[in-house]
Amino acid sequence: MACTTERSEGGPEGATTLRLTVSTSGVTTRTTPTLSESVGTLASGSRIGVTVQKTDGTTYSLSDASTTNIPYQASGTGNSQTWSATAPITLTLEEARVSAYYPYQNNANPAAISITCTNSSPDWMYATWKTASTSESYISELYPDVALTLKHAQAAVAVTITPDGYTGPGKISKIEAKGFYGRSGTLNTFTGELSGVTKQAISETYSSPPASFTSPGYWTNQWFVLPMDAELPQTMVFVITIDGSEYRTISSATYEQGKIYRYNFTVNPVALELTSVVIDEWNTTAMTPGALVYTDPNDENEEKYSEGNNNGGNTGGGGSGTSNDDGVYLCDTEDGNYEIWMATMNVGAVTPEGYGHAFRFGETTPWTANMPEYNLTFTDNYVLTAAEDAATVYMGEPWRIPTYEEWDRILDQCTITFEAPVAKITGANGTDVVILPMPGMVDWNSQNEGEAGYYWSATYSRVIPATNWVEAYPAAYGVNFEYASYNSQFYKDIFEQGTKNAFNIRAIKLVPKS
Predict the structure, then answer these.
(1) Pair 148, 160 in one domain
(2) pLDDT computed for residue 402 by the predictor
(3) Domain end (from 297, 320, 343)
(4) CA–CA separation, 283 vs 302, rounded Å?
(5) Are the beta carbons of 263 and 238 closer than 8 angstroms?
(6) Among 36-45, 229-238, 410-419, where is mean pLDDT lowest?
(7) Is 41 in contact with 78 (CB distance < 8 Å)?
(8) By the number of CB atoms within 10 A of the CB, which of 118, 120, 377, 486 ranks highest?
């Protein structure tokens, strides 16, 4: 919905100044059962940075007055909202265009604004170059009216928790999101393009949710991430504590600018389930990250979401993640004191057949083609700590990467077969089965995809001595599952491989024997 404005005051006498209409199309967010802001408007008192240029992109000015990053402030809301400036931009007969962004930053370069997503960071918005609200292809003193629509520069993530036959008090003491996603970058507000986005391991905790969730409403928690030009989906691990019980689930999505990703959970008497991931155009006014939002399900204006009601986009799959199903029993440890249980999905995957992420040895950030040079070093026979273990970082303790000895035990005690395009591990009891997908050598353009799978152990080996053909290189132990089509043989063994290579990870946990 557009918001009309009056003519800006403060310009030279008799001069024509820029007249703005600013909108943020869509419905508003809610902080209580009452509206926090009028539909389609920023709050009264909000400031935007406005820039006017000639249509050819060169500087536009009158009497040397600046027309770059000029603060305009809103007064009122809804259709009565107006925008004014202490030193409004004066227009001439020259053909021009206008751009804006929110929130205004003093002395900022609108073509390169640094953004960092935190609990207190703003909802960055931008309006690309616009011309007159009439049919004219430019603004000038003859055509001073411009309608700007602010778009969201980030992606929004929201967690929704709805009771489903749950009889407890419903006290939520923690909502935590852990994962690898865009944290900081540079925004060109003239074009809306993001550049230099860095992918970091993030753990956001919101420890002041509502006292409880009960009918008739449910509660959500929301925060911002930056879209990335990443080859792999970005993964969220959710850790939610309800009535003292901790629940975990994992899901992946490729976050896109200007969209909101709603992770919809239901809690029943026995479990918390991720029922759907809904991706929508983010058609809301500015939000506060980390804000808790109450939604009345009886509100006819509130869009309802349910499993299968996906309006498009890549959800990366739905359903519970690896850490929700307790894994599968494979065999006992050699000393007989523990049972080895294996997760049913790779780290970063959302289905048993999904490849998930690949990692260089000892790194907890998923591999991508543009990662910096690998530079980790270890001593001989070193075993990764919890902080260096991607399985633990993603899934939480007691999940971790198997050591050399544990992989050796699994290969010795279990039956492993190839059933294209996966390997199957049948536990020592002859009944329990887990699937291992065969992604091939992911950092070599998925070489041998569907016929080979390479999985890290948590154990570093040594520096492999140089030969006449290869320089010395550090190596760690991994497991190779490979079907050789030339002789129809299926091989599975532990091998030494360069630590800078990217392999998949399948987590295990040890359960004490009773």
Answers:
(1) no
(2) 98
(3) 320
(4) 12
(5) yes
(6) 229-238
(7) yes
(8) 118
The kind and range of the H/E element at 159 are strand 155-163
Residue located via tokens 């699937």: 435
Instruction: Give the C-alpha separation, 156 to 447, whole Å.
Output: 35
Question: Domain span at residue 388?
Answer: 325-512
Report if pTM > 0.85.
no
The arithmetic mean of pLDDT across residues 389-394, rounded, is 89
In this structure, are 446 and 487 located in the same domain? yes
Calpha distance 345→191 (Å, rounded): 40
Which of 174, 237, 245, 265 has its CA nearest to residue 396? 237
Are 6 and 17 in contact by the 8 Å Cβ rule? The answer is: no
Determine contact, residues 331/413, Cβ cutoff 8 Å. yes
Q: Are residues 278 and 423 in the same domain?
A: no
Please state the three-class secondary structure of 154-212 as a single string: CEEEEEEEEECCCCCCCCEEEEEEEEEEEEEEEEECCCCEEEEEEEEEEEEEECCCCCC
Evaluated on CA atoms 464, 470, 472, 473, the torsion sign reads negative
Given a contact cutoff of 8 angstroms between Cβ atoms, the answer to whether 140 and 94 are in contact is yes
Q: Are 506 and 346 in contact (CB under 8 A)?
A: yes
Separation of alpha carbons 273 and 358, rounded Å: 26
Portion of the chain with pLDDT greater than 70, in percent: 75
Between the CA of residue 93 and those of 5, 84, 128, 138, what are the distances in Å?
Answer: 22, 21, 22, 10
* Arithmetic mean of pLDDT, 195-203: 71
pLDDT value, residue 211: 47
Q: 511 in helix, strand or coil?
A: strand
| 220 domain residue, yes or no | yes
Cβ neighbours of residue 420 under 8 Å, at least 6 residues apart?
Answer: 450, 451, 483
pLDDT at 285: 53
In this predicted structure, what is the pLDDT of residue 371?
80
Q: Is residue 103 in some structural domain?
A: yes
- CB 474 within 8 Å of CB 377: yes
Matching residue, tokens 């569907």: 450
User: Nearest-CA neighbor of 340 among 404, 389, 402, 424?
Assistant: 402
Q: What pLDDT digit, counting tens, does each position of 91-101 carry?
A: 989 999 999 99
Spatial separation of the C-alpha atoms in residues 285 and 3, rounded to whole Å: 13
Band (pLDDT 50/70/90 cuts) for residue 43 is confident
Distance CA 459, CA 454 (A): 15
- Alpha-helical segments (H) within 402-466: 404-413
Q: Among 349, 350, 372, 368, which residue's Cα sits nearest to residue 359?
A: 368
